[in-house]
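Hey, sorry to bother you again with one of my protein questions. I've been staring at a protein lately and its backbone has me curious. I owe you a coffee for this, so here goes:
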Amino acid sequence: MRTVRWIAYGLVVVVVAAVALVWVQRGGLSGFNAARIGVSVPGGVSVGGPFTLVNGQGKTVTDADFRGRFMLVYFGYTFCPDVCPTDLQLMTNAMELLGKDAARVAPIFITVDPARDTPQVIGEYTKLFSDKLVGLTGTPEQIAAAARAYRVYYAKASSAQSTTYLMDHSSFIYLMGPDGKLSALFSQGTTAKDLADGIRAKLAGTS
């Protein structure tokens, strides 16, 4: 639990530093809209990294498989009652708004609940949103490694009145560049148009 807390604290530091950087560059709060432009992360801050996971067809997938394309990454779980399906639908809608540019982006959903999210479960779940959405799971150790790399907070939350459980987790959408490095972060409150516009701006910078 201590390690998970440090991961959460680390992500908070990253986001605060990123917002502060953009605030300074724009001369204060005037015209600042983090959701619309995405939050660019200052140099020297490490978010993202190698992962080895399993897709909905039971095949091993690594971060290297997506080199040359942008990755739009979200961590959540299939039993999530509200935030996860909302954010995944947001990603799906943004991909549709990108039109032909969507071919340059791989939308990826990584579970933080590997005990329940088997390859079959996550494969069937992602199809509810889009055939292009890649669902990834793995062993608890593989998921923990990916979460550490992306500074994702997650923890099991149980209730005395329930026989099942929910998962607490941070909810950021990560845009990773073709080189596998973080290009932008998008937080809750982002609309599909904001997300699509933010992605398109990053795509334009690499075309």
